[in-house]
C-alpha cells in the first residue's frame, strides 16, 4: 500500500483527476498551507489533497452566532469539523497539483490547481497550522467493456448537453473535441454533469472505470428525461429551494 502525507483542503465540492480547480484562499489556515507550498522547490510538485465535506463548513464562522450569540467562534485548523475531523470528510478524495500559487497584496492567495490521483483518507493530523492527511493512493482499474461504455456515455452526454443548454436558454458550443480514453471520459462527464455532491462523490469512488461509466449512463438518461419533461429547470435545481404543496 502506497501512502503519502499531504496538506488537506476540504471543500463543499468534489475534485476529479484531470479537472482544473481555481481557489480563492482567504482563511488563515489555508493561507498558511499556501505559504508552505510556496517553499516547495521549483522542480517538485506543489501538492495537496482535496476532500469533499460530509459534515461541516468549508469556511469556519468568524463571528458569534446562533444558537449562542455570545459564544466565540471555534478557531484552528479543524474549526467547523468537530472533535475528529476525519469523520467530517468523505473518505475518497483527489490530489491536486498547484500550477499557480499567487499571493495578493492583502495576504490572500489565488490558486490554480489540477486534480491528479484519487486517494483514500486514512487519518487527519490537526496539530499544526493546517490539516495534514495520511492518504492511500488508489489505482484506476479499467473494468470490463470500458471502451464500449465510454462511447455510449459520450453519445448520451452530447444529448444531455443539448437538453441542458435548451433548458437554460444558452447556446451550445459543439466545436470542442471530447476525449475518448475511458477513464478521462468518466471523470470529465462526472465533473460536467449538474449533480449534487453525494452523487459526484459516488462517481469519484467507483471501484473501476467501467462501474463509473455504467452509473453515468443511467444518470445521463434519467437527467435528460427529467429536463425534457421540465424544460425550464435543470432537475438538480429542484433541491435548492423550498417545497410547495401547490
Automatic annotation (TrEMBL):
Coiled coil: none annotated. Transmembrane segments: none annotated. Residues 58-83 are annotated as: Disordered. Residues 6-224 form the Lon N-terminal domain. SMART domains: LON (SM00464). PANTHER family: ATP-DEPENDENT PROTEASE LA (LON) DOMAIN PROTEIN. This is Lon N-terminal domain-containing protein. It comes from Streptomyces naganishii JCM 4654.
